[in-house]
């Protein structure tokens, strides 16, 4: 069996390596990234998040996004309705685990979005 998380990044890498192909990933990835952004995009699209926790899967999301040149859109100025709000509500609390992630070439085409 292939781990779905691993398969996501492998597929994304193939798309990113294809000339002229851009990637948009909208996913319930269960990766908590707090307000961290991929270093390449920290100044261009800084993030804020109601979820202040970063977990191991969130660290892996950030690492993979960095390696593939992908930007997390949640909590940036492009998220129009309540930027950085939680996307999951459970008895133990709320978190931001549903992420919108795009390749650099798509950023200028995103006018706004809402999770």
UniProtKB/TrEMBL annotation:
Domain of life: Eukaryota
Record-linked InterPro entries: Endo/exonu/phosph_ase_sf
Protein name, entry field: Uncharacterized protein
């Amino acid at each position: 069996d292939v781990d779905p998380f691993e398969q996501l990044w492998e597929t994304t890498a193939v798309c990113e390596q294809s000339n002229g192909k851009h990637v948009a990933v909208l996913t319930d990835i269960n990766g908590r990234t707090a307000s961290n952004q991929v270093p390449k995009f920290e100044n261009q699209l800084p993030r804020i998040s109601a979820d202040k926790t970063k977990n191991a899967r969130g660290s892996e999301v950030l690492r993979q996004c960095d390696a593939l040149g992908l930007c997390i859109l949640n909590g940036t100025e492009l998220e129009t309705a309540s930027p950085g709000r939680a996307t999951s509500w459970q008895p133990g609390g709320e978190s931001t685990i549903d992420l919108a992630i795009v390749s650099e070439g798509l950023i200028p085409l995103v006018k706004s979005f809402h999770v």
